[in-house]
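QUALITY CONTROL LOG
STEP: pairwise intake check
CHECKER ROLE: data steward
CRITERIA: each record must contain a sequence immediately followed by its structure tokens, with no blank fields

ENTRY 1 OF 2
RESULT FIELD BELOW
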Amino acid sequence: MNDAFIYDAVRSPRTRAKPDGGLHDLRPQELLRQLYAALAARSGLSPDAVGEVILGCVTQHGEQAGNIARSSVLYSGWPERIGGLTVNRFCSSSLDAIAIAALKVDAGLEGAVVAGGVEMMSRVPLLADAAAVFTDPELARASRVLMMGSGADLIATLEGVDRTAADAVALASQQRAARARREGWFHSVVPIENTERGITVTQDECIRESLSMADLAALPAAFEEIGAGGADAVQLAAYPTLEAIDHVHTAGNSPAMCDGAAVVLIGGAALERHTGRPPRARILHAASACGEPLQVLSGCIAAARRVLGERGMDTAQVDLFEIHEAFAATMVKARRDLGIGEDRCNVNGGVIALGHPMGATGAMMAGTLLDELERRDLGTGLVAASGAAGSGCALLVERC
């Protein structure tokens, strides 16, 4: 890509996916309306310049069904000519939305596109759409599609990640996220008004600042029952050298379900004349890739490798990484396979601590990456996310 730039990125706070969560009372359209307004105000954008809105959303059911991208544009009062496209590649969906937007801008098909994602998991719960591939055991086995936690436990078994190592990843995520929140490093977060309760939500809620290794060690394995129900047998048949699956993942070292949304303004070089503000970063490359489906969550690694390989780069040439913290063992594998240290990866925590609003997480990570590149005065960053069934997407950016 040569002419696709990120002008700004904003996100809501990530709040608990429970009735007492700060965003729970808001419809996803209302949450997006506030983010569109914040993006326009911060970037100097007039909605008249926008050609399309592209959003990721995983559970397209109920309030999130019916093309949430288009319905949110209309709900927000933006020009009715603006198109809306909703995409689903599981947890990398909003990164894919950004990539599609960048391709359209780079090809000259659009001058400005708003891309991002939304997931209100307290209002539209995980698996509310009752997708057959997750609810029909026969179909799941034939398709080699298992739940994410089962894939994480398989990765832990294959990589030799024990419970202590998994909990250490979770604790580091909590500590880093707590520090970033305390120091005000998440500049992409904008306040959201919850008029139903008369409150303004300004900070991420899922971070557990006082969490300890002892707290984590006390939690039971979360996916042992699913394994006993048939998932272990499928995995062991595919990996006959394994004697058993090690169930090391718990609620404490797994992604926290939450509510949230994020939007990013993508445009060509000419958009600067419209906004009067320079872009923050150039999108150098984007790619999707898939890994082994029974491992479920290794797609981020495959996508990162593809992006770097097609760009003729290696990981040593990237200053910072934001890798989807899709369960603790996945992070251990990603750092090993990509050859990156903790000093360059998820330096402000990940979704284990911050929360994982599935369709929005990739765009949130992109904003976090930009914020931290600017804070450290660094140049190049890579963001990658995994999704179910081994899918993944990665985005390589360079500060302007």
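ENTRY 2 OF 2
RESULT FIELD BELOW
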Amino acid sequence: MSDVIFLSNVRLSFPNIIQPQRRPTESGEERVSYNCELLMPPDHLGFKQFMTEAGKMVSAKWPEHAASIMQMIQNDRKFRCYGNGDEKLNKKTFKPYDGYAGNVYITAGRDSQPQIIQADGTPIDPTNSMAYQQLTRKMYGGCYVNAAVKPWLQDNKHGRAIRCDLIALQFAKDGEAFGEGAVDASNLFGAVTGGDSGAAPAAPAMPLPPFMQG
């Protein structure tokens, strides 16, 4: 368990926890991933531990070229699961996403559901899908969570990289939701009266467009 890093009181972003993210691979198969991003200040103890552990793993796997490989990974965001929040730009506004500016992030995921920890510190029975969904629905982008993550090294035809497994999540507290949050439209509605059938009034007949006539 020494390579599992505990991240205390970090903000959750882009969560795909209730339902996995599904993406096609180059081979045409579907890649399933339960994932999220975890935001924290640059001096967060958990982030420092994560970087230290990742550095040790790189040195152990590629001892003769560790410095060069680490530099290559640092220089290309595709090869690392972490980074400076200021580099995560919204493609519409060209500004950092909500909550990212001034922080660092770790992207973590796995192909099966992560362990979900209840408020009392006990894990949810993985076979209890109702309890799992009930608690994961509380985990929205912007809330605070505690997380257990595990760095691992990629070394295949796609390159050498530092990746991260999402081991477990625990809801910690509410926070300001990222983006617009849930839209409340309740002010548009009134009480339903018994005599109202709900049917819309008949609309006047519209002429057919030219390509449907004749």
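INTAKE CHECK: passed for both entries
DESCRIPTIVE NOTE, ENTRY 2: The chain has three helices and seven strands.
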